[in-house]
Amino acid sequence: MFSYEFFSTLLPAFIVLGTGLLPPIVIFYIFKQRTKTRKSPLNMELLRAPGESLRKQIDELNDTISEKLMFLFVGPISIYSAVLSKPFFRESLLLCGCCSFFQ
Predict the structure, then answer these.
(1) 3-state secondary structure of 99
(2) Are 94 and 102 a contacting pair, CB within 8 Å?
(3) Which residues, 6 or more positions from 94, have their beta carbon under 8 angstroms from its beta carbon?
(4) Are 83 and 75 in contact (CB under 8 A)?
(5) How far is CA 59 from CA 63, 64, 97, in A?
(6) 94 in Cβ contact with 100 (< 8 Å)
(7) Domain boundaries, the chain
(8) What distance in Å separates the CA atoms of residue 69 and residue 64, rounded to the nearest whole number?
(9) Cβ–Cβ < 8 Å for 90, 102
(10) How many Å apart are CA 75 and CA 50, to the nearest integer?
(11) Is 103 in a helix, a strand, or coil?
(12) Which three-class secondary structure state does DSSP give residue 44?
């Protein structure tokens, strides 16, 4: 039914497939044997959500960056408005006689 020539032509293919597929099959079998007795940690109640401490650190950094950006934009604007409004307040306070601080 099958001749020697047929098997001799398929022998290199069997060798290549055998050497290429055998190691992953053995590794998978060993991995399955080792994990069969191990207990899953996902069955227990978690103390906190995964990444919770990292989320807190990210929130703290976001708050710090927001504060610094606020001072970066609000600081110069407030100084500029104080400089521009100084003559107006000096004259209005002197006219009412309340304070002589700006003289």
Answers:
(1) coil
(2) yes
(3) 100, 102, 103
(4) no
(5) 6, 9, 50
(6) yes
(7) 1-34, 74-103
(8) 9
(9) yes
(10) 39
(11) coil
(12) coil
List per-residue pLDDT tens for the chain, 103 residues long: 567 777 777 788 888 877 888 888 888 898 888 877 777 767 777 788 889 999 999 999 999 999 999 988 888 888 888 778 777 666 655 555 555 554 4
Q: What tokens does 56 get?
A: 């807190």
d(CA 92, CA 96): 6
Residue 20 is encoded by which pair of tokens? Answer: 């290429």
Beta-carbon contacts of 86 under 8 Å, excluding residues fewer than 6 positions away, are 102
Both tokens assigned to 34: 């080792």
DSSP 77: H
Alpha-carbon gap, residue 92 to 16, rounded angstroms: 97
CA 103 to chain CA centroid, Å, is 56
Q: Which residues contact 89 (CB under 8 A, 6 or more apart)?
A: 102
